[in-house]
Amino acid sequence: MSPISLSPGAVPLRDWHAIYRGAVPELADGCRERVAQGAEAVARILERGEPVYGINTGFGKLASVRIANEELTTLQRNIVLSHAAGIGDATPRAIVRLMLALKLASLAQGASGVRPETVDMIETMLTRNLLPVIPAQGSVGASGDLAPLAHMAAAMIGVGEIEDDGEVKPADEALKSAGLAPLELGPKEGLALLNGTQFSTAHALAGLFEAETGFRAALITGALSTEAAKGTDAPFDPRIHALRPHPGQIAVADTLRTLMAGSAIRASHRVDDPRVQDPYCLRCQPQVMGAAFDVLKNAAAMLAIEANGVSDNPLIFADSGEALSGGNFHAEPVAFAADMIAMAVCEIGSIAERRVAMLVDPALSNLPAFLTPRPGLNSGFMIPQVTAAALVSENKQLAHPASVDSIPTSANQEDHVSMAAHGARRLGRMTDNLHAVIGIELLAAAQGCDFHAPLASSAMLEAVRSVVRAAVPSLDEDRHFHPDMVRAVDLVRDGALEAAIGIALPTMD
C-alpha cells in the first residue's frame, strides 16, 4: 500500500480511511516550516516573561501557579506522566495508528508550538509501526482526551509500552531497538501532545468506516431478502422518491432497483403473486436505509472537519506572537457525530433483523418454516434469528446518546464535558453487532432464494449467492451453525459482497 501524503487541514476522508486500513502517512512538503515558526513563537513568549497557560504555568485548576524557566522541561514531563492515568483494555492497533496520524496532522499546522523534531517522532513511529499501548478508558472528551493522549506521549518519551510489530515491549526498549532516542519535551510540548480530540475522533472515524461497510452490505442483503420473499420492486420506482427527494432515499431506491434488475424471481411476482403490498422491512428500505445514509453522511462531514482541525490549547499564532486560550479541545462535535452514527447503525441492523424474522415465518414469506426443507426434525434458521434479535436489542441499549451526559472534573474548572470518548468507543461493539446481523441475513436470504430454483435472481445477486455458496453450502439439514455465521460475517466485513456485484455503491466521502 502506497504512503498517504498528509496535507494538514485538507486531508480527505478517504485518506483517513486508508490509514485506518493500514496505509502509512507522510507529511506533505512545507509543513515543518510552519511547525518551526510556531516553536519560535513559544520561545519569544518565554523571553517576554509573561505568564501563559501551559507554557509557564500549572494546568487546569493549577493554572495560576507560575513555573520558573529552569523547571519548564520538568513541567512538561510531569504533565505527561501524571495524566497517563488510563485504565482498561488496550486500544485496537488500527485506531492507535489513526490517532497518531490525526495528532501528526494537527501539530503540523503550526498552531501548537511544538518543534519539528516532535512531529518527526510521531511520523517515524507510524512509519516503523511503533504503536503506543493506550488503555481505552479514562477520557471524558474535555479538556481533550487527556489520559489516552498522555499514554501516547509517554511512549514517545520512553515511558510505558509500545507494540512493535505485534510484540509489546517497554517503550524505552522499543525505541532503542528502532534506533530512536526518547523525546525530551520542550516548553508546551507535553500539553500540546495530550490535549486534543484525537482519541475520540479516531474511534468515531473507525465507527463511521465500519458503519459504511455494514450499510453497503445491508443494501445487498436487503435486495437478496426481497428476492427470497418474492417481493416487488415497485416501491423502488424513482417516481415515488422524486416526490420526497431526500438524497439518501433516492440513492438507496436506485441501488435496490439496479441490484434486482433482470431477476426471473422478480418477474414471477408479476404473474401470480396475490400480495398487494410487502411488509415495511422490504417496502420501506429506501426510507429507512436512505435516512440512515443521510445521517452517516452528516456525521462524516462533521468528522472530516474535526480530523482537519487543531484542538489543543492554548493555540499559538506565530504571525502575531500570541498564545490564545480557548476551548477547541471540547469534543462536543465528535460526541454528536458518534451519537448520529450509533443511531444509524442501530436502525440498519433493526430493519435487517426484521427481514430475517420475515423470511423464517412461513405466514409472511411463503417459504418453508425457518428456511429448512424438513421443519420439525430440523430447526433451520430459528436460533440465528434469535441471535440477530439479541444483537439488535444490544445495539438499541448502546445507542442511547452519550452527548447528553456530562460530569464536572478538575475541581469544577472543567465543569462541562462531552463524553465523546464514550460515544465513539461503543461504536466498535455496535458495528461488530451490525456486521453479524447482516451476515445472518446474508445466509437466510441466500437460503430463501435456494427454494425458488430453477428461477434465478439478477446477475448481480446471483454473483453474491455464488460467493456465499463458495463459503457456506445450502442448509439441507441441521448442522453446527456457528462456523457458517463466522464465514458469512467475514464476507460482510471484508467487502466481498460489494466486490461480487461489480458496481459502486453509495459512499460517505
Automatic annotation (TrEMBL):
Residues with 2,3-didehydroalanine (Ser) modification: 143
Modification(s) after translation: Contains an active site 4-methylidene-imidazol-5-one (MIO), which is formed autocatalytically by cyclization and dehydration of residues Ala-Ser-Gly.
Keyword Cytoplasm assigned: yes
Main enzyme class: lyase
Pathway terms, separated by semicolons: Amino-acid degradation; L-histidine degradation into L-glutamate; N-formimidoyl-L-glutamate from L-histidine: step 1/3
UniProt EC number: 4.3.1.3
Cross-link (5-imidazolinone (Ala-Gly)): 142-144
Pfam families: Lyase_aromatic (PF00221)
Catalyzed reaction equations: L-histidine = trans-urocanate + NH4(+)
CDD domains: PAL-HAL
Assigned protein family: Belongs to the PAL/histidase family.
Name by which UniProt lists this protein: Histidine ammonia-lyase
Organism the protein comes from: Stakelama flava
Gene label: hutH
